[in-house]
Amino acid sequence: MRTLSLLSLGLAAGLAAAPAAEAQIRNAPAPRALEFAAYIFAASNVCGYRIGTEQFEALLAKQNTRAEDVSPRGPFGNRVQTMFALMSNQMALNREKACLAVAGEYGPEGNVAQNVLLPAAAVAPAEPGTPADKPAAPPAEAPKPGQ
Questions:
Q1: Residue 66, CB-side half-sphere exposure with 13 Å CA sphere
Q2: How far is 95 from 47, CA to CA, in rounded Å?
Q3: Would the pTM count as exceeding 0.85?
């Protein structure tokens, strides 16, 4: 009789914990969503593009995926990292054509989606009032010991 009650208590405890465990289980993103994320990350890496966060997240949302899921620390980040490495290596073999193709698909005037990949940030200009071709002044000499 005592064994039966322990068994039933264990079963009841297990059933009580089930809803909490179910809330954490998520379906894996579609393979296409993982490939898309890896492609965008690879293009950013190889070509130096910035990722338009809002547009990227919107395209992932259309595929029922969140950016947190495909990020390197996300639950599916390892899968994306593997594809990312392969795609980056392939893009690097013919960088110029790959970067033009990716910009044509996801750049500011992309034919698949616009502004997912943005041009690299421009280099910050020199300090105001300092001509770019004028060398910076050498640092002042430190006083010598004993002076």
A1: 7
A2: 7
A3: no
Backbone angles phi, psi at 121, to 5 degrees: -65, 140
Alpha carbon distance 110, 46 (integer Å): 18
- Pull the structure tokens for residue 105: 């698909």
- Establish how many alpha carbons lie within 13 A of residue 74's alpha carbon, considering only the half-sphere containing its beta carbon: 18
Rounded alpha-carbon distances, angstroms, from residue 1 to 13, 14, 30, 73, 79: 19, 20, 50, 49, 50
Looking up tokens 């990020």 gives 71
**C-alpha to C-alpha distance for 18 and 73, rounded to whole angstroms:** 26
Per residue in 96-135, pLDDT (tens digit) is 999 999 999 999 999 999 999 999 864 444 455 544 444 4
